[in-house]
Amino acid sequence: MADYQPLKGQKALVTGASSGIGAAVAKALAGAGAAVVVNYVGNPASARQVVSEIHSANGVAVALEADVSQETQVLAMFDAARREFGTLDILVNNAGIQRDSAFTQMTLDQWNQVIATNLTGYFLCAREAAREFLRRGVVPSVSKAAGKIICMSSVHQVIPWAGHVNYAASKGGIMMFMESIAQELAPHRIRVNSIAPGAIKTPINRAAWETPEAEAKLLELIPYGRVGLPEDIARAAVWLASDESDYVVGTTLFVDGGMCLYPGFATGG
Ligand code: NDP
Fold it and tell me: Assign residue 250 a region: left if phi > 0, alpha if psi is -120 to 50, beta otherwise?
């Protein structure tokens, strides 16, 4: 465990923590002192691996299965988390999928799957977390806030994305969802914020970085000149979950190597 533990004594739940960004966030929160629920849906071995890495670093973690798009499963997961850790201080809404297709070829199933996981899943988990935060209130020895919710959005909450309209619509929806609940919950000392990653090397976008040609093409979109790593996002999540960011409410923190800076205009326009 790290010496600096801004989340000591806190309990966190990270959805989709068996892979990519969620796995890195779960490990970083645990390294910062939080006990962590590692949520997964289809891959228990990967979730167990994340838990075992946290245990090896003297952290506290359990894996809990739930499909975040299913209300009964979400309710059962939050009950299990409370039984395990007593309460909850931090939710990281992270589970997300892509089902890409040209718009005119997109099936209703592709549309519904993405909205159900990326948007409805965030609603169901945030609602349960907020209910627990309201029930318990602020515990000053733990945190200045009654609870923190972090939504993993994307640069595609502002950058349109042809061929991925279900995904872009879900991320645009997350922006207004996050800001609206941030406004509603702030008087109860619940802080809600988003992180908008740019291109991060994970399985979700493997095709975009796994060959040198693909990576070179991707780098044309990234002024900072490197593809991001899950740990870049994990460090931002620790900060947003900690009292170091206590006055940060309803904000999206872009962690994107400058992807939103219209890189095409660097030499044109
Ligand atoms: P990965 O594909 O590596 O991981 C996705 C995770 O979500 C997995 O743990 C998966 O679980 C879980 N998951 C999928 N569906 C469900 C569900 N219905 N219920 C519970 N868990 C589910 O993707 P990333 O780590 O890249 O993505 C994480 C988040 O970051 C997503 O919201 C994504 O949109 C966002 N993001 C990613 C970017 C990137 O460049 N990688 C850029 C911008 C945003 P399992 O393994 O068990 O199936």
Answer: left
User: What digits encode the pLDDT tens for the residues 23-36?
Assistant: 999 999 999 999 99
Is 167 an active-site residue?
yes
Among the atoms of ligand 1, which is closest to the Cα of residue 155? 43
Alpha carbons 251 and 240: distance in angstroms, whole number: 10
Span 180-186, mean pLDDT?
98
Distance 114 CA to ligand 1 centre (A): 11
Structure confidence at residue 168 (pLDDT): 98
How much is the pLDDT for 269? 75
Q: How many angstroms separate the CA atoms of 155 and 199, rounded?
A: 9
Residues in the chain: 269
Give distance in angstroms: CA of 170 to centre of ligand 1: 13
Write out the H or E segment, with its range, that includes residue 61. Answer: strand 60-65
| Structural domains of the chain, ranges and CATH numbers in brackets | 11-265 (3.40.50.720)
Which residues, in sequence order, are CB contacts of 90 under 8 Å at separation 6+?
A: 7, 10, 11, 12, 13, 29, 34, 147, 148, 149, 150, 241
pTM, full prediction: 0.98
